Amino acid sequence: MRRLHILALAFSAALGVFVGGWAYFAPQGFYDSFPGALGSWVSVDGPFNEHLIRDVGAMYLALAAASIGGLLWRSTVGFRVLGIAWTVFGVLHFLYHALHLEHMSLESAIGEMVALGVSLVLGVVLLLPEREAHRPTR
Predict the structure, then answer these.
(1) Which residue of 29, 72, 101, 122 is 20 to 30 Å from 46, comparing CA positions?
(2) What SS3 class is residue 39?
(3) Does residue 23 surpass a pLDDT of 80?
(4) Is the distance from CB of 63 to CB of 2 less than 8 angstroms?
(5) CA–CA gap between residue 131 and residue 134 (Å, rounded)
(6) pTM of the prediction?
(7) Residue 105: helix, strand or coil by DSSP?
(8) What is the distance between the alpha carbons of residues 117 and 57, in angstroms, rounded to a whole number?
(9) Number of alpha carbons in the 13 Å side-chain half-sphere of residue 43
(10) Is cis: bond before 35, omega within 30 of 0?
(11) In the beta sheet, which residues pair with residue 39?
C-alpha cells in the first residue's frame, strides 16, 4: 500500500505543478486553452479574471509543494493529511464542475469529469490505511 501512496503523491504533485504552474505563470493562456489538446474548459465558464486564475494556480502549487514534502518525509500521518487536503479539494472541485456542464460539448464534459475524477481518486488513495505486516504465529 505504501507504494500506492507514493504513486498517488507523485501524480498529485505532478498534477499540481502542471495546473498550478500554468495558471499562475500564464493566466491568460490557462484561461484560453486549458487543458490543451483536450479542448478549452476554463474560458467557457465565464469572463477572464487574472486574480482568480492566479489564486487557483497558487493553490495548486501549494498542494504540489505539500505533496513533494510528503514524498520526501514519507509518513502515514503525512499521507493522511495530504489525502484529506486533496480529497476535500477534489470533491468540491468535481461537484462544481459536475453541476456546470451545460456550456460544454459532450466530449469536453466527459474529459473534464474523467480528469477531475482521477484527481479525486488520487486523494482518496492517500486516505487508505496501510496494511499491517503479517506476523508469523507461533
Answers:
(1) 122
(2) strand
(3) yes
(4) no
(5) 9
(6) 0.88
(7) coil
(8) 19
(9) 12
(10) yes
(11) 36
